[in-house]
Design a protein that fits this description.
- The structure is a homotetramer.
- Chain A is an alpha/beta fold.
- The first copy, chain A, has 2 domains: 133 residues, Rossmann fold, CATH 3.40.50; 236 residues, Dihydrodipicolinate Reductase, domain 2, CATH 3.30.360.
- Chain A is built from 10 helices and 17 strands.
- In chain A, helix 1 links the parallel strand 1 and strand 2.
- The longest helix of chain A has 19 residues.
- The first copy, chain A, is globular, with a radius of gyration of 21 Å.
- Chains A, B, C, D: One of its GO terms (molecular function) is nucleotide binding.
Chain lengths: 394, 394, 394, 394
C-alpha cells in the first residue's frame, strides 16, 4: 500500500515553462505526496531558450538543472521522460526526437498543428511503444473527477443509448477588440485559434466520456476581430498594446455539428468571445436511460438524471464529486472539500507514472491525439467548403 | 387609467380546444381582470368537429356557444376575431378565409406547414391590414417578462455588438421508444417534428431579442425512433400503446448553425429526446458589452452580464423579473411572486387587443411568421443537401 | 369525471379587494375552468367600505354585486361562503359572525392578531362544523405543488426521522429607510410585522410538511427603522413619502430557534430587510434517510436528497414539479410548463369547494391557524423575556 | 519582483500528521512555488508519538526529519516555527511552550478547548509578540478568495449598514447512527462537537467579513445519537464498528441566534446531521446597500447584490472569483480556472511568512481565537440556561 523509501526515481525533463509549465511542475512535485506512486518523479531538468529566464523559472518551479537547447536534454542519460509544454508548432519535432532517443513523452495538446504532423507523431509513438517507450497527450480535463465519473456512468450503461451530445468551451479573454496580438492568434505558431486551443478539449472529452468517436462534422468558423494592436512586449498575452497592428490569422470562434459513431447528434462551440464566461466547459449528454450535465465553472459537480426513477421523484442529481469512491478523490480530502484546476495535472502524472511502471501504454495516446486532430481538420475543411458535412477517417 | 364599465366588446371565436385551446381560453378570460383593456373580450363561440365534445369543452372553458364547422364561424356577425388553435395543416385555409371574411386573426405557430402556405397567409394578412383587419401569429414566449427584458437590454445597447447566439429547446416526451404515434409525428399533419413545433420558438425568440434575422443555416435532422406503436385511442398523445405500429415521418431532433444579419454566429438545437429536460428553452447571447442567459425552467429569471463592470465585481446577475417596472409585471403581483407558463398567453391577448383598438398592426405579424417558416425551410433543405450552408431570403 | 352543466352553485362573498382580494378573485374565477369541481363558484358579492372603489373593483375583478357593510353580506340569503381578505384586526369579528350566520368561511392568514382572538375563532369554527358549516385559513403556500410533494415524501418516510428544519422568509420591501409608513407597520392593525405577515407562513409550512408541531422557541425581534415618513396618500404601501413621520410599532425582522415534536432542531428567520430577496421562502429539512430543499424564488422545483443512494451517485435531485402525477399539476399544462404564484390560491379554492361538497372539514382549519398563532405568541414572549426558551401549548 | 535564490530559510516543525497535517504540509511545500516569499519554508521536522508512523508520514509528506516528543522539537535550534495540528486538548500546552521557546506558532482552530486555555494562549502570544515571536490561529477559510472579496466589499461600504448575518456549516458524516465513536465525539479530547469543530469557522468568518463581533447569543445544542459503536481500530473515523458502544459527550448540532456589534441580527447553525450536505459553509449577509451570499460547495463564487442598481437590472451577481485582481488569485491560473480546498492553507502560509519577515503580527491572532472561544462558550452557557440571551465579553 505504501510508497517505500526505496522507490526508484523517474527523472523528468520539462520543455517550456509558461502557464502549462507551471501547471506541469506543480503536478510532478505534488503527485507523490498524495498518491502512492511506483516511481518517484525527480524534477531533473527544465529547458528553455533564454538562460537567465530558464534559470529563474527552474528556481521558482523546483527544477534541479537547466538546458537552453531541448536537443541537449535528449542526450542526457539522467532523463527518463520528456514533458513537452511548448507551442504547438514544435511538438512534432521535439516529441519524435525524444521518443527516438528512448525517452517517454508527455506532450501537451493539441498534439500537433496539423494532421500530417500528428500522423508522424502517432507513428513514432507506435514504434517507441514496441520498444517499451511510452507516450501520452495531455488532455488533462479527462482527469477531473466529475469527468471520470461521467465516463463510468456511461460505461455502466446508466445513460443507455446516447442520442445527444452538446458541448461548449466558452472563454472571453479577447472579446475586447483592444486586446493585443499574441502567438495564440498566429496560425503559424498556434495552428488554429479557439478550435485547436479549446475546441480540442471538448472533442476529446465528449469522445472520452461516450467511448465513441465523431464520424463527421459541419462547421462555421469566424474571426470577429481581424486586426489587433501589437503587444508592447512581445509574447505577452496580457500586455498592454504597443504600436502598430497585427493580423489575426486564426479563428476567434468555431461552431460545428456532427454525428457520433453510436448515432448521437452533436453540437459543439468553442469561442473566446463569450463575454462573462471565463473557462466554461459545458457538456451535456442525453441517452435513452439517463442524462449528464457538467460545467467546469462548478468543476466538483456532476449532474445526473436517472430515467429509471419514477417521474414524480426524477430530477437531475447534483452529485458533489468529492466522495472517497469517486475517481482520484480518495487520495485527497474528506467529502465536500473540493479540488481545483491543477488537480487534473496531478492525476495525469499519477496515471502516466503508473502506466510506465506497469509497462503499459497510457491514455490518451498519440493515436488518440491524432484522432482529435482529424476532427479539427475536418472542421476546418467543412468550414472552407460551405459547411458541407465532412466525414472523419476512423 | 381605468377600464370603464362601458368598454366595447371584442367577440372572439376559438377554433380548436386541445392544449392550446385551453391556454388561449384562459388568456381571453383573464386578461381583462388584470389589465385595463380598451376592448372587453367576449368568449363568443368555440368551434370543433364533434358536437358533444365541443359542447363539453365550451362549458369547461367558458365559451357561450359552439359550432362544428369553422366556416360557420366566419359567417357569424357576432364574431370579431378568430383564434386558430388547430393543427398546422389547417392554418392557411382557416386564417385566410377568416381574414377575407373581415375577422381579425390570431394564429398559433408555426404559421403554416410550409413556405408556400405561409406566403399565402402573409399576403392575405397584408391585404387585410389595408382594410383594418389585424393578424398575429402566436409566438407567445415573446411575452414572458424575462424575454421582454432581454429584448429591452439589447435594444438599449447594453450587449453591444452581438457575437454569439446559442439556443436550445429541449423536451423528452418521446424519448421512450414505446411512446405511441400521434399527429405530431405525422408530416402530413404537423409539417415537421421538433423543428417546427419547438425549433420555431427559438428561431423567433432569438430574432426577436436581437432585432436581427438569420441569414443562413447549416443543419442536421434526425429521427431516432422510426416506428412507434399506434395509440390505443386515436389522437391521444399520452395514450397507452394499441396494436400495430406507425411510421414516424418527422424529425425527432434538429440541430443547426447559422449567422445573424449583424454578424453573430448561431447554434440551435431542438429535440424531444433530451431525457430529463421537460420544456427547457435556453437562450444565451454574447455581445461586445454584455451577455444574457435565459432558461424557461426558471422562467422568472434573466441572467445579465454587464461587461462595463470592473472585472473584480462583474458577474452574471440573476435578475428576478418580477419588478413593477418589468414588462407586463406591474399588472400582477408584488416583486418576487413569480408568473407561470400561461401568463404569456394573457399578455398576448393584451397586446393584440390593444393593437386592434389602436388600429395598429400587432406583432409578431404573419410576415414574421413567414420569415420563421423560411428559416425552418432552409434548415430542411440544408439537411437534405449534406448540411450545405443555405441562405435565407430576407 | 366531468363537471356536469347542472353543477350546483356556491355563492361567494369576498370582503376586501386589495392584493389578496385580487388573488382570491382570480382563484374563484379560474378554478372551475381547470378542475372538475362539485360546486360551481359564483362571484356573488364584493364588500368594501367605499362605494365607488368597491364598484370599480367589482367590475375589474368580476363580482356581480357590491356591499359597503360586511354585516349586510351576512344577511344575504344568496351568500354561501364568506372569504375574508381584510387586515388582521378585523378577522375575528367578521369570521365569527359569518360562521354564526351559517356561512362557510375562508379567512386569510394570520388567523388573528393575537391568541385570544384566534381561540375565539377556533371555538366558533368547531361549533359551526358541528352544524356543517366549514372554515379554512388561507395558508395558500401549502398548495404549491412542490410543497405538496415535500409533504408526501415525508409522509412516505423518505426522509426518515427529521433532525433539522431551517426556514427563512426573506423580503426587502422596506429595507430602504425612506419607504413610508403603512398599516402593515402599525401593531394595532397588523398585530405584528414580519413575524405574523411572513413568519406565520414558514411556521405553517414546516409544520405541514413534517406533520409535526413546534413545541418551544427562543427568539429575537428587531425593528431596524423606528420612524418612517408618512405616506403621501394614506394606505399606500408604494406611495411616495408625505410630510411628517410615523412610528413603526412592529418588528422588521424575527429570528427564532425551536424544537419540533419529533425532536428536530429548528431555525427560523422572517425579515423585510434582506436586500435583494423579494419573496424568498426557503425551507430545508434534513432527516435520517433523506433531505429536502425548497426556495419559492424557483417555486416549481423541489430538491430531494435520497440517502439510500450509493454515495457515488447520491446528490440533491432537482425535481421539476410539473409532472401529471404531482399534486394539482394534472389539471394544468404538460410537464415543464411551470405554474405561478396565484395557482396556490386556485388550488385552495379547489380543496375548499371539494371539502364543502363532501361535507368534510377542510384544512388548514381555524384550529391549525390558532396553533400557528400560539407559536407567534411564544416568539414574542421569548423575545420579551431575554430570549428564554418558551414552551408552546399543544 | 522575483524570489532570489538567496532567500533565507524559515525552518518549520509540524506537530501532528493526520488530515490537517497533510493539508499544512502541502501548503508549506507549495507556497514558494507560486508566491514570491521573503523567507523560504524548509520542512525541517515532523513530530508524532509513534516512530514508525511518523517516519512513514515524513517520507510521504516531505519532511526532512522526525521527532516522537514535541518537547524535543522546541529544543532544536534548527526550528523557527511550530505548526500545531494536534487535537484541541493539547493546543495550549504545546503552543505556549513553543512561544516561550521563541518559536513562531501556527495553531489549528479552535484555539483551545475552553476559554481559560485560550486566555492563557492569548497572554503567551502577547508576551511573545513583544519579543518578536509571532503567532496565528488557523482559520484557513478566511483565505478563500471569495471570502477575501466579501470582506473587501463590506470594508468598501458596498453593503452599507449590516442588518442580517445568516451562516450555516452543514456536514453529514455522522448522520448515520452506526457511524462509530471517535475522539471528535469525546468532550475530553475535542472540547465540543459541531460547535467547536465547524461552528467556530462560521463565527470567525462572519466576524472577519463584517469587521464586527458578536455581542450576545441565544442557543440550543443537541446530541441526536447518544451511544455509538466503538470503532474496530482506535482513532479511525471511517473505521467499521467494533464491539461495544461509547457515549457521545459532545453536541451533534448547535443552533444559535445573536447580535453583532453594529446591530445586525444573526442566525447560526452547525451540524454533522444535514444529510446530503458534505461541507456546506453558507454565509449570507444583508446590508442597507447590498447583500452577499457564499456557499463553500461552490467555493470559487461570491454572489453580490448591489442595491444601487435600478430595480429592473438589479440581481445577485455570480462573481467567479478567479480574476487576477481578486485576493491571492494572481499567483495561480488564468480567469475561470478554479482553486480547491487546500489553497486556503497555502495562502495562510503566504500571509504568515510575509508577516514574520515584515516583523508584524499576523492575523487571525490568538486574541482573535480567544474571542471566538468566548462566543462558543457563551453558546454553551446559553444552551445550559434555557437559551437565555448571554452577553459576550468584548
Amino acid at each position: 500500500m505504501t510508497r517505500t523509501l526505496g522507490t526508484p526515481a523517474l527523472n523528468v525533463a520539462l520543455i517550456g515553462y509558461a502557464f502549462m509549465g507551471a501547471a506541469h511542475s506543480h503536478a510532478w512535485r505534488t503527485a507523490p505526496h498524495f498518491f502512492d506512486l511506483p516511481l518517484r518523479p525527480d524534477l531533473t531538468v527544465l529547458a528553455g531558450r533564454n538562460q537567465a529566464a530558464v534559470t529563474e523559472a527552474a528556481a521558482k518551479l523546483g527544477w534541479s538543472s537547466t538546458e537552453t537547447d531541448w536537443r541537449r536534454v535528449l542526450e542526457r542519460d539522467d532523463v527518463d521522460l520528456v514533458d513537452v509544454c511548448t507551442p504547438g508548432d514544435t511538438h512534432a519535432e521535439i516529441a519524435i526526437a525524444a521518443l527516438e532517443a528512448g525517452k517517454h513523452v508527455l506532450c501537451e495538446k493539441p498534439l500537433a498543428n496539423n494532421v500530417a504532423e500528428a500522423e508522424a507523431m502517432a507513428d513514432a509513438a507506435a514504434k517507441a511503444a514496441a520498444r517499451g517507450v511510452r507516450s501520452m497527450v495531455g488532455f488533462t480535463y479527462r482527469r477531473v473527477p466529475a469527468i471520470g465519473l461521467a465516463r463510468q456512468l456511461v460505461a455502466e450503461g446508466r445513460l443507455g443509448q446516447i442520442r445527444h451530445v452538446r458541448a461548449q468551451y466558452l472563454q472571453d479573454w479577447i472579446a475586447d477588440p483592444s486586446a493585443p496580438m499574441s502567438w495564440r492568434l498566429d496560425k503559424q505558431k498556434a495552428g488554429s485559434g479557439a478550435l485547436g486551443d479549446i475546441g480540442a478539449h471538448i472533442v476529446d472529452l465528449t469522445q472520452h466520456i461516450t467511448g465513441q468517436t465523431l464520424t463527421g462534422v459541419s462547421a462555421l468558423l469566424e474571426t470577429f476581430v481581424k486586426e489587433r494592436p501589437l503587444p508592447a512586449a512581445a509574447g505577452s498575452l496580457s500586455g498592454v498594446a504597443g504600436e502598430g497592428t497585427g493580423t489575426v490569422t486564426v479563428d476567434d470562434a468555431a461552431v460545428f455539428l456532427g454525428r457520433f459513431s453510436g448515432g448521437a447528434l452533436a453540437s459543439f462551440e468553442a469561442t473566446r468571445f463569450a463575454l462573462g464566461r471565463k473557462n466554461a466547459i459545458r457538456i451535456e449528454i442525453n441517452g435513452s436511460r439517463g442524462s449528464l450535465a457538467f460545467d467546469f465553472e462548478d468543476m466538483n459537480v456532476l449532474h445526473f438524471f436517472d430515467g429509471d426513477e419514477p417521474d414524480e421523484t426524477a430530477g437531475f442529481r447534483r452529485i458533489v464529486v468529492t466522495e472517497p469512491g469517486h475517481p482520484y478523490v480518495g487520495a485527497w480530502w474528506p467529502a465536500g472539500h473540493g479540488l481545483g484546476y491543477e488537480h487534473g495535472f496531478t492525476h495525469q502524472v499519477v496515471d502516466l507514472v503508473t502506466a510506465i511502471a506497469a509497462e503499459e501504454d497510457p491514455t490518451p495516446s498519440f493515436a488518440d491525439g491524432l484522432q482529435v486532430q482529424r476532427v479539427l481538420d475536418a472542421v476546418e475543411r467543412s468550414a472552407a467548403a460551405n459547411s458541407a458535412y465532412t466525414e472523419i477517417k476512423a
